[in-house]
Amino acid sequence: MDYKVKDIGLAKEGEKLVRWAEQHMPVLMGIRKEFEKERPLKGIRIAACLHVTKETAVLIETLKKGGATVALTGSNPLSTNDGVAAYLAKNGIHVYAWHGNHDKYYWCIEQALKINPQITMDDGGDLVTTLHTKRQDLIKGVMGGTEETTTGVNRQRAMEKNGILRYPIIAVNDAMTKYLFDNRYGTGQSSIDGILRATSILLAGKKFVIAGYGWCGRGLAMRARGMGAHVIITEVDEIRALEAAMDGFEVMPMEKAAKIGDIFVTVTGNKHVIDAKHMEKMKDGAIVANSGHFDNEINVDWLEKNAVEKKEIRNNVMEYKLKNGRKIYLLAEGRLVNLAAAEGHPSEVMDMSFSNQALAVKWIVENHGKLENKVYKVPEELDREVAKRKLAAMGIKIDKLTREQIRYMREWKEGT
Ligand code: RBV
User: N or C: which end of the chain has fewer CB within 10 A?
Assistant: First the structure.
């Protein structure tokens, strides 16, 4: 059994977390039951690059129960829970991940690829990119892959456009039961959770600047407002900016927001959204964090090179003193604050995201022969099935259209 984790002795601690997550992931646990019976992934080798969390463990064990052999590597150097990694390694998963594996991040991905995957499961696209650059020899054996997050889907769409993508990818992120819940309510809650665990500050009355009003930004804005913060949105898209304004938030360019914000969070998927010219204008004591997939949304290199002093104030809080004498507090190295300083999205939303993952993998196994080297949506019937099951698990019933209503919806003659 090949694996590399921090300490296999942490497995018991990890197991407790995983059992707790299982209780809050009823849809995925239901799929697990079906997988155990039907074994749809029998003999399938999967390489997964996901945040090694308690929720990911529930997904990975579900795939295993479905008959798959799984190798798992982390999708961020700071998001691995070492207990969870140990628990999985002890239970037959080839895990290559530990908290703080910065220097070995790509080494871990390469180890996971040793499984010679038929399916890849990615969060952010580093696994797919590694396959397409360093391990092209393995691509002929791959049936397809899934992608968990917006940034990864963007990268793979770019690969498709450039004619480089060599196998089909299912964009799990783009399922309605993923982005409407995980990106919005997941990021909303877990980012606040990370900021509070790191800093322990009061949000009420603070000027809380959010860069990006996509689904993640919307969720975060809603939650920050709920805790009494004065929320400011920065955007580059005119429609989203309008939406933010009519949702009741203040909208302004980052250059202006930089001068007045107390807390800044980037959720854009783009780079250097908070740059030198912004940080130079920030107030003394400004707190800066990122919840987007990569750590380049804030120009951390500039901070590193230009700060006259740097010291760790608390766990996940680095103080940078600038030449102008002001201090900026960077959380979790500018990496996903929700995963690095907290536990990532709560299990209840990952239940839906990861149910889409499990069903998408099964769908690839059944349909890969018909697919081209493109980025595909999760089939709508699977997406809706996840919603139906989640509603049932939550004990919520909804109405059904009557025959007359169905007829009426197709009708065009009946009017005023
Ligand atoms: N994410 N995973 C977790 N608890 O396992 N939390 C967040 C977890 C995923 C989320 O789906 C998002 O799309 C991605 O992390 C960003 O890297």
Answer: C
Residue 150's pLDDT band, with cuts at 50, 70 and 90, is: very high
What digits encode the pLDDT tens for the residues 325-351?
Answer: 999 999 999 999 999 999 999 999 999
- Cα Rg of the chain (Å, integer): 22
Name the residue of 25, 59, 75, 350 to mutate for ligand 1: max ligand atoms within 8 A of Cβ: 350
Average pLDDT, the chain: 98
| Paired tokens of 308 | 């006259």
Question: Pairing between strand 144-147 and 169-171?
Answer: parallel
Q: DSSP strand E in 93-245: where?
A: 94-96, 119-122, 144-147, 169-171, 207-211, 230-234
* DSSP code for 92: T
As for ligand 1, residues whose beta carbon falls within 6 Å of it are 51, 53, 55-56, 123-124, 148-149, 182, 293, 339, 344-345, 350, 353
For residues 265 and 276, what is the distance between their CA atoms, to the nearest angstrom? 16
pLDDT tens-digit series, residues 349-405: 999 999 999 999 999 999 999 999 999 999 999 999 999 999 999 999 999 999 999
Taking the centre of ligand 1 as the mean of its atom positions, its distance from the CA of residue 196, in whole angstroms, is 18
If one residue of 148, 155, 215 were mutated to test the ligand 1 pocket, choosing by the most ligand atoms within 8 A of its CB, it would be 148
Strands of the sheet with 317-321, listed across from one edge:
250-251, 230-234, 207-211, 263-266, 286-290, 327-331, 317-321, 309-314
